[in-house]
């Protein structure tokens, strides 16, 4: 089978490897029909995470079950499924909360070395009853792919931001996660959402969706627009030192900063005294994917939550290198890339 691998910064290629074996009696093999390129994949591409060996990339997959172990009960061979980007063991008390981040064995993410990459012809999925869901009626491929990671992440970011009804929210970073967070913030009762990104085209896209565009560093503008008070809630979908600092400066006293961006490996110098004196709540999580599905699927099916227009580009798997270059350009026109094996 073909799988997208990275050998070092900027070095993406499509490699032929042996087909994966069934990962135990509770696992399935999925023939991938669509895979996303995620902002977090770019941390490998841009050399922020050093690689000891090549890594098979990708953690957002939709496809057809082609082999299922005897213990799998929720899906059958031939089913079209989506695969959670974040995997738990599926059997512990942590996984019983449906949030794979709570797994007592530690979460595992596809395409980061621990599990196979989703940007491939085939993907081996352990504990499939926990990781995989048959795509419900009324959910299209792009929505299903966003449910495997970016929408679950943006939704969780809004849920954890303590957004008051009628409140003011700032979203930092207007890639796919930030745009999902923006829409989720409005669904959680925000009256005003400041949309922060250094790329003008991305701010414009957010403005088209009802947000107020602001260029970084945004704290000063957000303070000015809120009578010096600051935003009730800030969602940071970037998580660089600069964005975290800007987020902590833009939130009002007693407000919440909800972080879902993926930081690099270096420690962040938290201004702890300022956070203490202003009673700031700081929350951070990676995507609690499976927990969000019962909430998000009916909202998408009913049309109340709209995530159309987040995928901007579709390429065949063999053009993965072009897809990464496009995603890495972070232009206003190219937000999210879909690869089709
Ligand atoms: Zn991701
Ligand atoms: Zn577990």
Automatic annotation (TrEMBL):
Transmembrane segments: none annotated. Residues 8-339 form the Enoyl reductase (ER) domain. The keyword Zinc applies. GO terms for molecular function: alcohol dehydrogenase (NAD+) activity; zinc ion binding. This is Putative zinc-binding alcohol dehydrogenase. Its cofactor is Zn(2+). It holds the Pfam family ADH_zinc_N. Its EC number is 1.1.1.1. Keywords: Metal-binding, Oxidoreductase, Zinc.
């Amino acid at each position: 089978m073909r799988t997208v691998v990275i050998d070092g910064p900027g070095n993406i290629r499509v490699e032929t490897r042996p087909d994966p074996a069934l990962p135990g009696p509770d696992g399935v093999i999925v023939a991938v029909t669509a895979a996303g390129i995620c902002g977090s994949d770019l941390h490998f591409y841009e050399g922020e995470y050093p690689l000891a060996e090549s890594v098979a990339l990708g953690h957002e997959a939709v496809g057809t079950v082609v082999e299922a172990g005897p213990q799998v009960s929720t899906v059958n061979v031939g089913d079209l499924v989506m695969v959670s980007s974040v995997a738990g063991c599926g059997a512990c008390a942590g996984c019983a909360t449906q949030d794979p981040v709570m797994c007592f064995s530690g979460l595992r993410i596809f395409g980061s070395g621990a599990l196979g990459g989703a940007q491939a012809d085939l993907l081996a999925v352990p504990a499939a009853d926990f990781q995989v869901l048959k795509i419900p009626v009324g959910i299209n491929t792009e929505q299903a792919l966003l449910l495997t990671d970016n929408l679950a992440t943006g939704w969780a970011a809004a849920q954890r931001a303590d957004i008051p009804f009628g409140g003011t929210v700032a979203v930092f970073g207007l890639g796919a996660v930030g745009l999902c967070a923006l829409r989720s913030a409005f669904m959680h009762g925000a009256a005003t959402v400041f949309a922060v990104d250094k790329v003008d085209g991305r701010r414009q896209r957010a403005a088209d969706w009802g947000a107020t565009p602001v260029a970084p560093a945004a704290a000063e503008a957000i303070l000015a627009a809120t009578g010096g008070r600051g935003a009730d809630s800030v969602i940071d979908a970037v998580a660089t030192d600069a964005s975290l600092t800007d987020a902590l400066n833009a939130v009002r006293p007693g407000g919440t900063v909800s972080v879902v961006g993926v930081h690099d490996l270096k420690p962040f110098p938290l201004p702890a005294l300022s956070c203490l004196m202003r009673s700031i709540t700081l929350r951070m999580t990676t995507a609690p994917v499976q927990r969000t599905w019962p909430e998000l699927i009916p909202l998408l099916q009913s049309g109340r939550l709209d995530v159309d227009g987040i995928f901007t580009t579709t390429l065949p798997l063999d053009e993965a290198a072009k897809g990464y270059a496009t995603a890495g350009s972070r232009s206003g026109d190219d937000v999210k890339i879909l690869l089709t094996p």
